[in-house]
């Protein structure tokens, strides 16, 4: 087998992890530590993903804003071996990132959210009002 074929196969395996509910950890711009990111939706026709960050706690800024507070999803560490403690998916500020952001060596795949949690994440993103109708249809359409 040629090395190009092997590299292509490895790249293909990594691409399988880019799906709704996949969780990655790695560096993110302007943050001084690695962050967990959840892929909430993937656009087929655009090389973008809609993702959210996982935080250890809800910060005071969000706690004082009921609309943002309602967009947090509790993730129990008992459900996910990659979490060391209960955490929160911040669905109030979804990130539209290029797919390539998740394909770098320092971004590590951690696992998948269960069906209940990814459904809650997607519903809270839609309820947040931060995406357009076109973006909602692009990222969360029935497949």
What does this structure look like?
This protein has 143 residues and is an alpha+beta fold. Helix content is 31%, strand content 29%. Strands 4-5-3-2-1-6 form a six-stranded antiparallel sheet.
Helix count? 5
Q: Mean of the pLDDT scores? A: 83
What value does the Rg take, in angstroms? 16 Å
Number of strands: 6
**Which percent range fits the helix content?**
25-40%
Strands of the largest sheet, in order across it?
4-5-3-2-1-6
Low-confidence stretches: 1-14
Basic shape: globular
Largest sheet properties:
6 strands, antiparallel
N-to-C CA distance: 35 Å
- The SSE order reads HEEEHHEEEHH
Strand content is 25-35%
- Judged by helices, strands and strand pairing, the structural class is alpha+beta
In short:
The protein is an alpha+beta fold. Helix content is 31%, strand content 29%. The chain is built from five helices and six strands.
Observed structural traits:
143 residues, alpha+beta, six-stranded antiparallel β-sheet, 5 helices, disordered N terminus
Give a topology summary.
Blueprint: H1 3-16, E1 22-26, E2 35-42, E3 48-55, H2 60-63, H3 66-69, E4 72-75, E5 87-98, E6 108-112, H4 115-128, H5 133-140
Antiparallel strand pairs: 1-2, 1-6, 2-3, 3-5, 4-5
């Amino acid at each position: 087998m040629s090395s190009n074929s092997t590299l292509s196969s490895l790249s293909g395996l990594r691409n399988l992890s880019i799906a709704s509910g996949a969780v990655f950890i790695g560096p993110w711009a302007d943050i001084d530590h690695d962050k967990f990111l959840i892929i909430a939706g993937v656009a087929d026709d655009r090389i973008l993903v809609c993702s959210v960050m996982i935080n250890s706690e809800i910060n005071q800024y969000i706690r004082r804003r009921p609309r943002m507070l309602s967009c947090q999803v509790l993730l129990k560490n008992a459900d996910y071996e990659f979490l060391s403690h209960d955490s929160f998916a911040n669905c109030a500020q979804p990130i539209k990132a290029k797919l390539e952001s998740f394909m770098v060596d320092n971004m590590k795949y951690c696992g998948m959210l269960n069906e209940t949690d990814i459904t809650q994440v997607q519903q809270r993103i839609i309820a947040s009002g931060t995406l357009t109708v076109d973006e909602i249809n692009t990222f969360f359409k029935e497949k």
